[in-house]
Amino acid sequence: MDTRTAGAEPLRLRVNGRVHEVAAAHGASLLAVLRNDLGQNGPKYGCGLGECGACTVLVDGVAARSCVIPAAGVVGREITTLEGLGTAEAPHPVQQAFIEAQAAQCGYCLNGMILATVALLARNPRPTEAQVRDALSHNLCRCGTHVEILRAVERAADLVARAGSAPR
User: What pLDDT is recorded for position 165?
Assistant: First the structure.
């Protein structure tokens, strides 16, 4: 959907710590605005139904499915995408852990897996394996890298603990 159509409404969105003004079609999804208007390509279009997790972002630190959230519904909230976590030179501890654990195959699910992990570790810095499995159970991976992803989350918890601070 082209978010820049007739009848667009002006929105002020805070994404990755910066305020952006966009003109979005009435009812445009947050995913469409992030990708089409703001160039944030971390969140992916997967199912379009909020079922697969590929479009996950953090809204005020909570993992949320951007494909089913109207962009107008997050005005005044802090939205964090994969791009807002870290950089290639200084990755977020969760990103670093996924790199170290080689937890990617096709990579399509990683956006959701990483952001769900960031949200999990913010509320529970030392989750059990059962808690990790539960937190990630709504993010679909079709490549079969589940074991590596579990190792990455365990490594991320260690990196966050070592840094002495909760992940953002």
Answer: 52
Domain boundary among 61, 84, 107: 84
Element (H, E) at 80: strand 78-80
For residue 126, give every residue at least 6 positions away whose Cβ sits within 8 Å of its Cβ, in sequence order, or none.
157, 161
Tell me the pTM.
0.89
Dist. CA 136–CA 25, nearest whole Å: 32
Same domain, 106 and 149: yes
The DSSP line for 7-61 is TEEEEEEEETTEEEEEEEETT-BHHHIIIIIT---SS--SSSSS-S-TTEEEETT
Query: What does the alpha-carbon distance between residue 35 and residue 39 come to, in Å, rounded to a whole number?
Result: 5
**pLDDT tens column, 91-132:** 999 999 999 999 988 888 999 999 999 999 999 999 999 999
Per-residue pLDDT of 71-98, as tens digits, reads 999 999 999 999 999 999 999 999 999 9
Domain contains 127: yes
CB 66 within 8 A of CB 29: yes
Predicted pLDDT of residue 64: 98
